[in-house]
Amino acid sequence: MSLSQVIFAFVYGICLLSSTQGEFTNGTAYYDYEHNQYYVKCGQLDKGDGSLAYGTFNDTTNTTGWGVLDVKFSGPSKSYEEDLVRMTAAGVMEGILTGERIHQTYLNNFQSFLAGKPQFAARLSEFYMKQNQWTRKMVAGNPDDPFWQGVSLVVAQLDGLLIGYNLKSCQRKTLPTLDLSAMLFLNGMGDILDLQYVLNGTSFPDIEKATPDELRNFFRMSGHCSVLIKALPGFEDIFMSHSTWFDYNSMLRIYKHYNFDLMFQGAAAKAMSFSSYPGMLESLDDFYILGSDMLMLQTTNDIYNQTLYKMVKPESLLAWQRVRVANLMANSGAEWGKIVAKYNSGTYNNQYMVVDRKRISGELLDGTLTVVEQIPGLVMSEDQTAILRAGYWPSYNIPFYETIYNLSGYPMMKKKRGNEESYQLYVRAEIFRRDQSTVTDMKSMMAIMRYNDYLHDKYSNKDPAWSICSRFDLRAKDAFAGGCTDTKITNLEMAKTFSAMAVSGPTTSHGIPVFRWTSAFNDSHIGLPESYNFPFVLMEPTL
């Protein structure tokens, strides 16, 4: 039996899984070499030699705003070929445990991005399928290259995810079958933010002719997230935090813990914990705690210079794939930047911040903070520890590197929108600069990352979208169901155990009303709670 037969084998199941909201489910994946089939036993966690991977899913969406998934190899892998089999099994476990939530997420995102756009949907599917075929061809053509071996492990997990989802749907007879293009759509969600322009799914405005208000409304949610990395004055602690900005119908969340004891020699991080979504093998936010003693956070930047998109082609690796491989293989921020730059797709163009805890020993040694920024055709990466030594590093959807800022077209947009496109004078830059010194502990870090006092803060100018944790739904004009959807925070001690504090939902800072789904918003929100007023909860691995 060939390796490809093992990885892409037909899968059968011998159990039924209920995913009643709030119910705790678990199971173990195996491989039947005689019949060339994976199978799953539910309701048990088998760590024996015959098992491959096991997992648990605690769906507490309606009580905390999060589901929590743990997936772990049942033992150490003994070869790279076995790595691939176990990674597929890990994907199978995730697909079968979270299948109902995957289907709900697919429906909600389809409505947001593809409904009423059949031509764009066809172009996007074609792009993703070509990219997928190219990726598999490169994996097959470079069997001894550590980088492509890393890519192959991610591909195997994706294959298992699809297998596991469809296994569950076949068992329960209630979930429609999803194909590979559907899983590529979900995992490429961030890349769509750029591909919608590349593939003409959305017409880009004429920046010279558009008014500031027209531009503001068009790019209202293209800026994705707020980050603050805060070092206490004596470096007693460092807090690392991330608040996602996205459409509210994305708030079907799963916090995930992976523990994969790979034989793969290139693996620097065999375990990781991260905020995520059903059906996605990446964070998307991004917020990762890695087994390499590193953390990675991310905010998204805009591309206003549309000529850059001419460099986007399917013969490349998408952002989510490169991030997963860099997270797996890098042992330093500098290595992370080099790996994520390989085969740059020029889609989901972000600022990535990598904190290396190994470089913190009383002092913050060079290499503690590496900042990476990507645009089509260019990835820049440099050590920015010197700035962190001064107390903090903020990130708020405007490029830090002048070269990236200029090539992306920000100077042109700044002439139209003023300080909204200024790295130094953007509203969140001003608020972070003013308030970061108030952070002394976890409670105060929670407060700044959920901060929104738009009615009284002079920098917000009475706009609920102009704060650290935005609420576009509260705007008097041009309101929509979008804004700050969560916050995740960890510190040096918690990161040692892959732990973080996390809250799901729009902020209620300074008496802001709780968000509720009403007739004012017609966004598809299948499976989401009707209102969001959840507390911070502790996230930590259970396996």
From TrEMBL:
Descriptive protein name: Phospholipase B-like
Residues spanning the signal sequence: 1-22
Record-listed E.C. numbers: 3.1.1.-
GO biological process: phospholipid catabolic process
Family designation: Belongs to the phospholipase B-like family.
InterPro entries: PLipase_B-like (IPR007000)
GO cellular component terms, A-Z: extracellular region
Function summary: Putative phospholipase.
GO molecular function: phospholipase activity
Organism the protein comes from: Patiria miniata (Bat star)
The keyword Metal-binding is annotated on this UniProt entry: no
Enzyme type, top EC level: hydrolase
Presence of keyword Electron transport: no
Keyword terms: Glycoprotein, Hydrolase, Lipid degradation, Lipid metabolism, Signal
Stored Pfam families: Phospholip_B
